Amino acid sequence: MLAVIFTSLVKAENRQAFLEAACRHAEISRTQDKGCIRFDVLAPTEEKDEIIFIEIWENQACLDAHAERSKGGQEAPVLNALRYGKSMDKHEIIG
After folding, report:
1. How many structural domains comprise the chain?
2. Which DSSP helix (H) or strand (E) runs through 75?
């Protein structure tokens, strides 16, 4: 299994719109993408620009299919327009 920690940098004035699109994206991923075990959206409790997605996938093939599907989805353009930076860390779950 794979864990993905995806961080988006979002200005305060864009946070609510970003979170709404992010939650739709997470719900679609959980219900429609094969191999999506978990997909959580985390909002900061302090004044920070980071919105974090924590995703658990069965394998790389499922993650790749999710990425491909996401490109054509309605949420991706919104998320991309509202964030000013992003990073992704991927980890193998071994325990």
Report:
1. 1
2. helix 75-82
Give the H/E segment covering residue 28: helix 15-32
- Give per-residue pLDDT as tens, 22-68: 999 999 999 999 999 999 999 988 889 999 999 999 999 999 999 99
Number of C-beta neighbours around residue 11 at 10 A:
11
Taking the mean position of all CA atoms in its chain, how far away is CA 53? 4
State the residue range of the domain holding 33. Answer: 2-92
Q: Please state, in angstroms and rounded to a whole number, the distance separating the CA atoms of residues 41 and 89.
A: 15
Which string of DSSP letters, residue by residue, matches 37-67? EEEEEE--SSS-SEEEEEEEES-HHHHHHHH
Domain CATH code at residue 46: 3.30.70.100
Closest CA to 75 of 8, 11, 10, 20: 20
Residues forming a β-bridge with 3: 56, 91
